[in-house]
Amino acid sequence: MTELRTASLVAATLATGLSAGLFYSYACSVMPGLGQADDRTFVTAMQRINVAILNGWFALSFAGAMVLIIVAVVLQYRAGGGAAMWWTVAAAGCYLVLLVVTMAVNVPLNDRLAAAGEPGAIADLAAVRARFEDVWVRWNVVRALAGTAAFGCLAWALTLTGRGGSA
Predict the structure, then answer these.
(1) CA gap 86, 129 in Å, rounded
(2) Is residue 26 part of a domain?
(3) 139-144: long-range contacts, CB 8 A cutoff, minimum separation 24
(4) Domain count, the chain
(5) Helices and strands, number each (H, E), in the chain
(6) Which of 11, 48, 99, 153 sits in a 20 to 30 Å window from 75, CA-based?
(7) Buried b vs exposed e over 91-126: b needs ≥16 C-beta within 10 Å?
(8) How far is 60 from 79, CA to CA, in rounded Å?
(9) Mean pLDDT throughout 11-26?
């Protein structure tokens, strides 16, 4: 059972790290780069990115991270809890923030951007971009921070597990 508990924690850490890294990458490279583009390029790129990201690999790490974190918490609880369990619970809380922000802010913004239509047919691209960019970028930073915090909590839980602090 110890191996399964550790494996679930490793898997949760890896999936969470992938998600945190994705949002970090957007925060420090993708969005600053697109921020330098003209309105048509910005809207076109974001519309295409928002379609491309809806794939199985993204879903596996994005949704799978929370599932794996919960599995790790349950397995640690069944083994008697301990410090590693509480760090894993903290990771679940941080990752929940990432999920809520995504579903409450970023996805609705993505949907509104898609609903604006093809960039060539949008009368006021600057207005469409203005309603999207600053809010999306700000909340993506929150996602990046929450994901990084979740990853850090899981990394510490793994450290404690390696030291025998899982139970």
Answers:
(1) 42
(2) yes
(3) 139/101, 139/105, 139/106, 140/23, 140/26, 140/27, 140/31, 140/106, 141/27, 142/97, 142/101, 143/23, 143/98, 143/101, 143/102, 143/106, 144/20, 144/23, 144/24, 144/26, 144/27
(4) 1
(5) 7, 0
(6) 99
(7) bbebbebbbebbeebbeebbeebeebeebeebeebe
(8) 27
(9) 98
| Six token digits for residue 81 | 């809890």
Question: Which tokens belong to 6?
Answer: 């550790």
Instruction: Write down the pTM of the prediction.
Output: 0.93
E-assigned strand segments in 30-142: none
Q: What is the pLDDT of residues 112-160, one digit of tens each?
A: 999 999 999 999 999 999 999 999 999 999 999 999 999 999 999 999 9
Domain contains 35: yes
Name the residue with higher pLDDT: 166 or 141. 141
43 within some domain: yes
Whether residue 46 lies inside any domain: the answer is yes
> Domain range for residue 136?
2-162
Residue 49 pLDDT > 50, yes or no? yes
In angstroms, the CA 167 to CA 164 distance is: 7
Residue of 146, 150, 140 whose CA lies nearest to 29:
140
